[in-house]
Fold this sequence. Notes:
There is one protein chain. This protein starts with a helix and ends in a 35-residue tail after the last helix. It has 16 helices and 15 strands. It is globular and about 65 Å long. By secondary structure, it is of the alpha/beta class. Helices cover 36% and strands 19% of the residues. The chain has 2 domains: 3-191 and 373-394, Rossmann fold; 195-366 and 398-422, Dihydrodipicolinate Reductase, domain 2. Bound molecules: nicotinamide-adenine-dinucleotide. Nicotinamide-adenine-dinucleotide is lined by residues 52-58, 82-85, 88, 117, 119-120, 135-138, 140, 158-159, 188, 190, 242, 258, 436.
Amino acid sequence: MSDTKLHELSRRSFVKTGAAGLAATAAAANLGLLSSTAFAQSGDKVLGLGIVGCGGRGTGALGNCLKAAEELGLKVKLVAVADIAADRTERTKKAIESSWGAKGGYGVTDETTFVGMDAYKKLCAHPDVDIVVQTTPPGLRYLTLREAVNNGKHSFVEKPVCVDSDTYRHVIASGEIAKQNGLAIVTGTQYRRENSYADAIKHLQDGVIGDITASYQYYCSSTQWHLGDGGETKWDPMTYQMRNWPYFPWLSGDLIAEQSIHNIDAINWSMGGPPIKAYASGGRIARTQPEYGTIYDHFDVHFEWENGVKSAFMGRHFEGATNKVENRWIGTKGTMDLRPNPGRTAWIARGHDGTTVLARNTGREDNNQPYVEEHKALIAGITNNAPIMEIQGVADSSLTCILGREAAYSGKELEFKFLAETAKLKLRPEGMDDGPKAGPANLPYPDVRKPGSYKVV
Ligand SMILES: NC(=O)c1ccc[n+]([C@@H]2O[C@H](COP(=O)([O-])OP(=O)(O)OC[C@H]3O[C@@H](n4cnc5c(N)ncnc54)[C@H](O)[C@@H]3O)[C@@H](O)[C@H]2O)c1
């Protein structure tokens, strides 16, 4: 099949689905979208890469994908870029053209450079795009994933993939449609493809410390960047929040979802799934200025699994304090520490008397490249007619973070099942189901949540 025919097939099969009807459509869908079989049959096809959200991680992810293709001997080319800001699209284009242009990895034109609030729609509908790298703020992931899947495109989605109950259900529904139509969704929880982590979790599950009875997780780091207010030409309220998205829970999910998800996901991975409930506290004591929106700066959450095992999580953004990013598991026979040395990925299992049972101490020097591995899995899966679908795990880990956040915001013990199945929790402003619009004067800026007076419904 020629490339042109592949793209015609993709366009003909395009399906537009309202947000509410996603799940129903998934059940009925047999859309004949551009399939991995078609890729496998196309032989020498160059996979067209598009990106929505040309920020730091997005530009990095493009380089990772092109490197993955180079290492696998496959052909991938960046063909389209989209962002709300022209300075971002230009920066990404320049970076990729200078690193990959001479190797045939760059082919963006003025016609395939999309800027504005609806840029993501234009990119997802473009016939030359086969894979959409989605690296906008997390609160918009449901939109970009829906658009990519409905246009028959494969997806790489950065974590977290949802920020509330509503967006959780959206991404699960989009995953169902993707699965039924042979589309891949690979996610940016890169610990899952890091040798030391995979090795540690396997040993845990094989019983190196006996049965897991409890765990501790830390994601304690410094404060993040803030881009200001646009200078002389002040950004409108929507653009301001989109540019400074980490500080607004409807866009980032708060720091526990945006950043701590990596370590919370590692615990879910070791336990074989998400917890059933959470009890938590948190607040804002060090970063209280209004420009830092309404996120908390610290969380303490106790998660509990069906078998009674508990995990204590601590996450914070404190400037000038001691940082710690690691996990510890406690088992019937001993303990395991993962990443005990700052800057090195390694693990050590000890008996309860402190003697080392088993360790992987060589750190990053013998490690793989997890950010590249996730793209190898994505493109190899597509070309080998075995598209990888991993939305459920990352959605569950994203919702686990949301569970911890909402338990802290409300002060109430909350259940995972309630958030997944019953809660109406939806953070984005009214009237935005089909995407953000530039500059509404009434963009909500809700108060910082106060435990006791804020209730999750
Ligand atoms: N896996 C990891 O290690 C890792 C590391 C960093 C970031 N991330 C994740 O990657 C994502 C992006 O983070 P980042 O650090 O690159 O942020 P960033 O702010 O640098 O990039 C986000 C980009 O999205 C653009 N954007 C905002 N709203 C948009 C819209 N409506 N349509 C199109 N573009 C829009 C912004 O202009 C910006 O260029 C986040 O989900 C973050 O959690 C993952």
